[in-house]
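Running this now, will post back.
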Amino acid sequence: MANKLFRRKPLHVLLEELHGENRLRRILGPITLTSLGVGAIIGTGIFVLTGVAAHDKAGPALMLSFVVAGVTCLFAAFCYAEFASMVPVAGSAYTYAYATLGELFAWIIGWDLVLEYAVASATVAHGWSHYFQDFISTFKIYIPKVIGWAPFKLDTATGKISASGSWIDLPAIVITALVTVVLVRGIRQTATFNASMVILKLIIVVFVIVVGAFYVNPKNWTPFAPFGLSGISFFGKTIFGKSMGGAPVGMLAGAAISFFAYIGFDSISTHAEEAKRPHKDVPIAIISSLVICTVLYILVSMVLTGMVPYNQIDINAPVSQAFKQVGLGWAQFLVSLGALAGITSVLVVMMLSLPRVLLAIARDGLLPPKFFGAVHEKFRTPWKSTILVGFFVALLSAALPLELLAELVNIGTLLAFVIVCAAVLIMRKTHPEAERPFRVPLFPVTPILGVLLCLMLMFSLPPANWLRLFVWLFVGLIIYIFYGRKHSIMNRMEGTEAAKDVSVAK
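Update: finished.
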C-alpha cells in the first residue's frame, strides 16, 4: 500500500505523453511566454498591494520587502526552470512532484495548485470589479451596490463574516464569463489578448515611475523603516520584531504580504507543452518575467512612498490616489485604466493555467479524464475544464469577500514552491543522468535557500491560513482515496505488468 502511494512516474512516460492525441498546440515563443508571466505578475500587486504593505507593514522599507520577496521567488524560479526544461509537459509543480516524490505528494500539490489558481482568480476578479466601478464613476456611471458587492463581508479585526446588504457582485461574474469565452476559443487568441493588455499596463507603469519621480519628496522616506526591518512570526506568534494587533510588522512582514504580488510567474511552467522550444523558451520566460517585474515593483514602491507619506497612502487605490494627492487629478484616469488592464491580464493567465493543471492530473487518471482531459478538436484547448473553472471562479468572486479570498492564496503558492525546490534536490540524487538543458545555478545552495525562505514566509502567515489549507487538503485526500488511487494510470500499468509476469511464470 505504502509503495503505491509513493510510486513515481518515470520520465520516459512523461515524455511519451507529448506525442499523444490530447497534447496541446506548440505556438508560444519566449516573448509570448514572458508576456504571459508579466501579465500574471503585474496587476493587483502593483496597483493595490503596495498601498496596504506600505501603510500597515513596512513604510518606505517596502522597497526592500519587494527585494526579499523577489529573491525568494528567484530561487524557486530557477528550480521551476530546471524542471520545465527537463519535462516540458503541462502540470507545473504537480508533474514535477509526480516524477520525484511520488503519486500522493503529486496529488497533494496538484490539489494545492487548484486552490491557488482558483482562489487567486476569484480574488483578481473581485478586485477587477472594484476598479471597474471606480473607473466608470469618473463618467458619473454607478452600479447599484446591491449587485456590485459580495453578499458577505469580513471584519479583519475579529475575523467574523457578516452580511453586507448586497446580493451579488455582478461585474465579477461578467468579466469571468468574458475571459472564459476567450480562453475556450484558443491559446493564440488568448496570448494576443493578453499581450495587448500587458503592453497597455506596462506603458502606464512606466508613466507612473517617470512622471511620479518628479513629485518625489525624499523627506517622505524618513523614517525609512518605521516598523523596523524584521517582522517574523511562527503560527501567528511574533518571534522576531514588533507586532500590531497580534500581527507582525516590519520589512520582513511586508515581504510576506508582498509575496502575493509575485504569484503568477510559476504559471509559465504550466504552458511548457505549448512552447515552441520549451527547453530554452520556458526558463528564459520564467526568469526574465520575474526580474522585469521585481525591478518595476521596487521603482513603483520608491515613487509611491516618495510622493506621499506612508501613513497617508490610500490603501484602496494607492497609485491613482497618490497622483491626485499631489495635484495631478488628470493622471488618475490613466492610472485607473492601466490598473484595469493589468488586473484583466492577471485574471486571463490565472484562469488559463488552472485547466492545464487539471488536464495533467486527468491524464494520470486521478481525475475523470473524459471531462478534465477533454481537448477541443478545433481549438485544442481543455474546454470542459475551462468552463468549469470559469463557473467556479465566478461563484467565488461573486459571493465571498475580497479579504477572505486573498488570505487563502499565499500559503498555497508557498507550499508549491517548497515542494518544487525540494524536488530539484531529490531529482539530482535519483536521476543524475537525466538531460538538463537548464541547470539551477549554485546547486545545492539555491534550492536549499528557496525551501528555507519560503518556509519562513509560510510560518509568518496568520494561523487561520494553515487551518483552511489543511481543510482543503483533507477534502483532496478523501477524493484521492475514493477515486484517484483506484483509477490511477500508474496503478493500471503496474497491474498490466503483474499480469504479464504471471503469464510468463505459467
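The beta strands are 152-154, 161-163, 232-234, 237-240, 242-244, 247-249. More later if anyone needs it.
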